[in-house]
Every structure is written in structure tokens, then in C-alpha cells.
Amino acid sequence: MSTDNAYVQADMVGLSTDVAGIVTQVLVHDNQKVAKGDILFKLDPLQFQLALDRAEAQIGNTRNDLVALQASYRNMQAQVEQAQKDVDFNMVNFKRQEQLLANSFTPRPPSMPPATPCKGRSKARLAATTADGIAANLNGDPDAPIENHPRYKDAVATRDEAARQLAHTIVRAPSPAS
């Protein structure tokens, strides 16, 4: 048996990765047999590790921001409640003063503050408007779990993508080759 040339036919597989980077290690050599899953080469993981670290930090920042917004909302709700109680108290007191004056049971003060109940209502409206604005920043549901908020989901997705890219800095054989 003879051949026309000295070449032997072998399977060839094209390789690439979906992340760009600098090859730092090649773990195979020419004509080496490899099994599926063997590490062929590694890319420099530093930029991908840094992206993952930033994404992890962003999740923490987002969580903290949303928790602070929830706390602000609860505080504003308490202010709304207190302002409404103040309005109710001032209105009762105002009506009582009017009744005393109408019946001449008390001398007319030099300047009676007639705007007191109105100021209280304005304060209650302002607090309610601010609370509504905070609720809007919490996706309309201030009591929803942080994990359901779109900003938090976005931060988690960014982290997951960074982790995926880091994992792809190690390139493995997709199938056995000889």
C-alpha cells in the first residue's frame, strides 16, 4: 500500500469564544488528542472579574437605594397621617374658638389666625404628594419585595451576564478530536 502524499486526514474543529480577550494560556499542542470538555486555552480574566465585582456592588447599591426609598415612603405616610390628625385637631379647635367668640364667652383676640386649618390641609396634601412620588419610584408598589423591582432585576441581569462572560474566558473542547 502506498500514498500519493504524506498527509493523514484528521477532523478539524473551528473554535472561538463569544468574549474578546487576550489569550494567557494554551493548554494543548499540535496534534494532541482532546476529549470533550478539556480546557484548550484561557483568556485573561481580569477585565471580566472586575465587571463581575462591579455588578455585584451595583446589586448592593440598588438594594440599599430601594430599601431607603421604602423607608422614606413609610416616613412620608406617617407624616401624612400626622398632618391629617393636625388638620382635624386644628379644625375642632378653630370651630371651638369661633363658637366662643360668637357667644361672647371670650374676648376677641387682636389677630386670630384664620388660616390655621388651611395650612394644615396644605401640609397634609404636600406630604401625600411626596409620598405618591416616592411610591412611583418604587414601581407603584412600595411594599413589594425589592427583588421584584425592575432596577433590582436589571442589576441582577447585569451581574449574571458578567458571570457568564467570566466563565467563557476558559475555552473547552466542544467535542473529542484526534
Describe this structure as you would to a colleague.
This protein has 178 residues and is mainly alpha-helical. It is built from three helices and three strands, in the order E-E-H-H-H-E. The chain has helices spanning 46-102, 116-137, 150-167; strands at residues 23-26, 39-43, 170-172. A three-stranded antiparallel beta sheet has the order 1-2-3, with no helix packed on it. Helix 1 (46-102) packs antiparallel against helix 3. It is rod-shaped, with a radius of gyration of 35 Å. The two termini are 23 Å apart.
The succession of helices and strands, N to C, reads: EEHHHE
Quick one: biggest sheet? 3 strands, antiparallel
The end-to-end distance, rounded to whole angstroms, is: 23 Å
Taken as a percent bin, the fraction of beta residues is: 5-15%
- Ranges where pLDDT stays below 50 over 5 or more residues in a row are none
- Work out the helicity level: 40-55%
Number of extended strands: 3
Q: Structural class, judged by helices and strands?
A: mainly alpha
> How would you sum up the global shape?
rod-shaped
Task: State the helix count.
Answer: 3
Radius of gyration: 35 Å
Q: Order of strands across the biggest sheet? A: 1-2-3
Tell me, rounded to a whole number, the average pLDDT: 81
Please specify the SSE layout and strand pairing.
Elements (H helix, E strand, L loop, with lengths): L22 E4 L12 E5 L2 H57 L13 H22 L12 H18 L2 E3 L6
Antiparallel strand pairs: 1-2, 2-3
Helix pairs in contact: 1-2, 1-3
